[in-house]
């Protein structure tokens, strides 16, 4: 056992000396592996971060939450021309569902509008996602209020000119002042701030901290019932313990009856479940991971070829030394480990440098995008990068190392001379 440890130690020392004596060649070899490991781990970390941010943004919603809309959240076999002719999901659909569909814990009507400009005195914030939605969204998305309150059912039904803002939006508009009771201008109209949401952090797309919420009926009063080409949806949260499959069938039957669809006519709406959206996101993330592996794998392959090439050159240059070592009694395994260690050290150091660059990139990314997106370099990805670089070193160095260990000492000395 001690003999093998001594062989390992001496082989490792020879490998380090060889790398120190050829600094430029070592640097070029490191560069190839560094680029390869950086490419793979950066892509995997970016995809993992995207997946984590999306899942966190959906975590406040019950997985059984349903969105009734003319649009599908995922792939569908319904042709585009037919989907374009579907009627818009409107407030009448929402009222009918709320009164006639059983086993509903909460339901809300939302209008997916565009970005708006919010003004308070001299302060202006552009590109704000102002979401017109009925008050039940407070129960469905489990909002947390930091100051004030959310608008009531009466304010929602009557379309009161009130607004609830996210924490970042409140800070940008009012700085350190208390926002409650202040009047802001949205849609060219005055609205009173009655609540500020508790800071959430990351979100899907734009963060909830940058959004604002107004009663959907407020917008419906001056935007043709709230439509004007803007898509609407009914958000439904079934009661806990309800049979989701049966609930979905009842919901479809009720809507079909309300819209007067005949038995032989197809649905003119989509019932989208959050669970289905999560599965769809998982499929996209899996595809992105695969594409990232394929693209980045070529970079890592080039790095592996670079190490193999350098190792063959190293064997060629040190043929005379190998012959002398073997003539003095060095075993084949000593020569094998010597070159194998050299390849592995090159790959591992290159991989660690690549991981360092990914870590620096993650810090820069988090500093640039702030709370809207959290770029995470997980321990799993770091360990994967380390193991990949070690594996590349072994694969790239094994053939040159074997060829070096099998050299005949006499022929090696003669060739070197």
UniProtKB/TrEMBL annotation:
Family the entry assigns: Belongs to the ABC-4 integral membrane protein family.
Keyword Flavoprotein annotated: no
Protein name: ABC transporter permease
Pfam families attached to this UniProt entry: FtsX, MacB_PCD
Compartments it resides in: Cell membrane
Keyword annotations from UniProtKB, A to Z: Cell membrane, Membrane, Transmembrane, Transmembrane helix
Bilayer-spanning residue ranges: 27-47, 290-313, 334-362, 382-404
Organism in which the protein naturally occurs: Winogradskyella pulchriflava
């Amino acid at each position: 056992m001690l003999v093998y440890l001594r062989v390992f130690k001496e082989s490792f020392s020879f490998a380090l000396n060889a790398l120190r004596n050829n600094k430029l060649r070592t640097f070029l070899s490191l560069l190839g592996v560094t680029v390869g490991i950086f490419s793979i781990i950066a892509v995997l970390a970016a995809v993992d971060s995207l997946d984590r941010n999306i899942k966190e943004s959906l975590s406040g919603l019950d997985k059984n939450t349903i969105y009734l809309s003319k649009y599908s959240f995922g792939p569908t076999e319904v042709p585009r021309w037919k989907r374009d002719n579907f009627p818009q999901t409107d407030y009448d659909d929402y009222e009918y569902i709320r009164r006639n569909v059983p086993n509903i814990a909460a339901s809300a009507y939302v209008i997916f509008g565009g970005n708006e400009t919010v003004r308070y005195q001299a302060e202006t914030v552009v590109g704000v996602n102002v979401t017109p939605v009925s008050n039940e969204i407070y129960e469905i998305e489990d909002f947390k209020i930091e100051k004030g309150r959310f608008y009531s059912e009466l304010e929602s039904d009557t379309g009161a000119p009130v607004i609830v803002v996210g924490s970042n939006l409140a800070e940008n508009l009012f700085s350190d002042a208390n926002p409650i009771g202040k009047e802001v201008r949205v849609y060219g109209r005055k609205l009173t701030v009655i609540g500020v949401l508790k800071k959430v952090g990351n979100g899907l797309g734009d963060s909830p901290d940058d959004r604002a919420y107004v009663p959907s009926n407020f917008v419906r009063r001056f935007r043709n019932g709230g439509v004007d080409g803007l898509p609407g949806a009914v958000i439904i949260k079934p009661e806990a313990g309800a049979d989701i499959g049966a609930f979905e069938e009842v919901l479809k039957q009720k809507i079909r009856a309300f819209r007067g669809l005949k038995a032989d006519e197809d649905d003119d709406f989509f019932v989208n479940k959050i669970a289905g959206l999560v599965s769809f996101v998982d499929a996209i993330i899996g595809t992105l991971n695969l594409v990232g592996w394929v693209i980045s794998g070529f970079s890592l392959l080039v790095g592996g070829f670079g190490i193999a090439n350098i190792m063959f050159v190293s064997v060629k240059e040190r043929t005379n030394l190998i012959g002398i070592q073997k003539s003095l009694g060095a075993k084949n395994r000593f020569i094998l480990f010597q070159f194998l260690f050299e390849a592995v050290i090159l790959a591992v150091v290159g991989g660690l440098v690549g991981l360092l660059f990914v870590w620096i990139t993650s810090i820069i990314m988090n500093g640039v995008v702030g709370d809207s997106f959290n770029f995470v370099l997980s321990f799993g990805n770091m360990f994967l990068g380390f193991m990949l670089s070690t594996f590349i070193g072994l694969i790239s160095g094994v053939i040159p190392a074997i060829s070096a260990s099998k050299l005949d000492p006499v022929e090696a000395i003669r060739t070197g001379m």
